[in-house]
Design goal:
The protein contains 13 helices and no strands. It is globular and about 55 Å long. It has 301 residues and is mostly helical. It folds into two domains: 127 residues, Tetratricopeptide repeat domain (Serine Threonine Protein Phosphatase 5, Tetratricopeptide repeat, Alpha Horseshoe), CATH 1.25.40; 123 residues, Tetratricopeptide repeat domain (Serine Threonine Protein Phosphatase 5, Tetratricopeptide repeat). InterPro entries: TPR-like_helical_dom_sf, TPR_rpt. Keywords: Signal, TPR repeat. It holds the Pfam family TPR_16.
């Protein structure tokens, strides 16, 4: 578990908390939620080919082993900046990225709860604060989380049965047809960039697609491939992990995550994922990659 005391980031636009002796990131204000909340998404039908042939050289491999905790800290800083700008929905997704990278990161979960509460997603905020409490031994943070939970439950009762109050995440409901069309265009453009090995533009357009349709599974897979191309292996792993969470039966994230883990030196986990891909009967399995997966798994024994 990441030690929470090492992240004294100090922000001014976090919600709910008072003046207790807790880390700066666990203190907040009484910001009011906006009148409307985020709307959701549905997965696309066609997945991109998973990233292949990750071969960091011996000298560069250690430099590429960016820890999940470092990635989480980076996205937390992004979220802090967005909170200061009152861009709460974008901040929520930044903190969610941090949680995907490091699920046991207390600060990521606490701050995600803060952002969700501002947006009116009280049940989900409560879940995050409860998780943060379970992950820390700091009595002050636990008390602050409990104070937040008490206030959120009061707000939840006042909100009634709104989508936010019953626990839906931003991006988990219907997506307008025009927004979905924009997301799919950005996704297709990102896949085209990947085919041209233009990984930086691909990363940008695929991120835009996910901001418009946050549960677009194939965009996470494609963004993982773009991150692999940029040798951002920890970021790629986080994207593939979330794609698997959204669609556990799909195969493409298995291969991509195996490639990311192999580049990060996590060979036992990579071998297991290659073997799972080789055994998979999912519709998105590519026959040539099944054999390649068997060979790579064997080399990692």
């Amino acid at each position: 578990m990441v030690r929470t005391r090492s992240f004294q980031l100090g922000i001014s636009a976090v919600v709910w908390l008072g003046t207790m002796a807790v880390p700066a990131w666990a203190q907040g204000t009484s910001a009011q939620p906006p009148a409307s909340a985020a709307k959701p998404a549905a997965p696309a039908a066609r997945a991109p080919a998973p990233a292949t042939d990750t071969k960091p050289g011996p000298a560069e491999a250690p430099a590429q082993r960016t820890s999940q905790a470092v990635l989480a800290a980076t996205r937390i800083r992004d979220g802090d900046a967005l909170m200061r700008e009152r861009r709460y929905r974008e901040a929520a997704f930044a903190f969610l990225d941090a949680e995907h990278a490091a699920p046991d990161h207390v600060e990521a979960r606490f701050k995600l709860g803060n952002a969700l509460a501002v947006l009116g997603y009280y049940a989900r905020a409560i879940d995050e604060w409860e998780a943060a409490s379970r992950l820390t031994q700091d009595a002050a943070i636990r008390q602050s989380a409990q104070d937040n939970i008490t206030r959120a439950r009061t707000k939840q009762a006042e909100a009634g049965a709104s989508p936010q109050a019953v626990g839906q995440l931003p991006g988990s409901g219907p997506v307008a047809d025009t927004t979905r069309a924009q997301a799919r265009r950005a996704y297709e453009q990102g896949v085209q960039h990947i085919s041209q090995r233009a990984y930086a533009p691909a990363l940008q357009t695929l991120t835009q697609a996910l901001q418009q349709e946050p549960l677009l599974t194939v965009a996470y897979i494609a963004r993982g491939s773009a991150n692999i191309g940029l040798r951002r292996y920890a970021e790629a792993a986080a994207d593939y992990q979330f794609a698997l969470k959204l669609e556990p039966e799909s195969a493409s994230p298995l291969y991509g995550l195996a490639e990311a883990y192999r580049a990060l030196g996590r060979n036992l986990e990579a071998r297991d994922l290659y073997e799972r891909y080789a055994r998979s009967t999912a519709a998105d399995v590519r026959p040539e990659l099944k054999e390649e997966s068997r060979q790579k798994a064997e080399r990692l024994r």
